[in-house]
Specification:
Elements: H1 5-25, H2 32-53, E1 59-60, E2 63-64, H3 65-85
Antiparallel strand pairs: 1-2
């Protein structure tokens, strides 16, 4: 069984983008697992979307890095917006 480059590179790109996002933001606010999952899935979806649209600006083999990074950041932004707009916990 052979694993293609997309899942492995999506994991690496998602990890790097999550770390960069937390570094820029200063904190994860208790959402680190959600941010990580959103970035990894966004990177994987970005690669697939880049393949579908034919975006080949920056590639690593068959992996479209530019579209993967862009969609990973969209996923990170969506998780942050939902966390801000969502209900907050009340401490009793």
């Amino acid at each position: 069984m052979a694993i293609g480059p997309a899942p492995v590179l999506a994991l690496l790109v998602g990890t790097l983008n999550t770390a960069l996002f937390v570094l820029v933001r200063g904190t994860a606010g208790g959402q680190l697992p959600l941010l990580f999952v959103a970035a990894v899935l966004g990177a994987w979806a970005g690669d697939a979307l880049g393949a579908r649209l034919g975006v080949d600006v920056l590639r690593i083999g068959d992996f479209r890095l530019l579209s993967a990074v862009a969609v990973a950041w969209i996923g990170l932004a969506l998780v942050s917006v939902v966390a801000i707009l969502g209900p907050s916990r009340r401490r009793l």
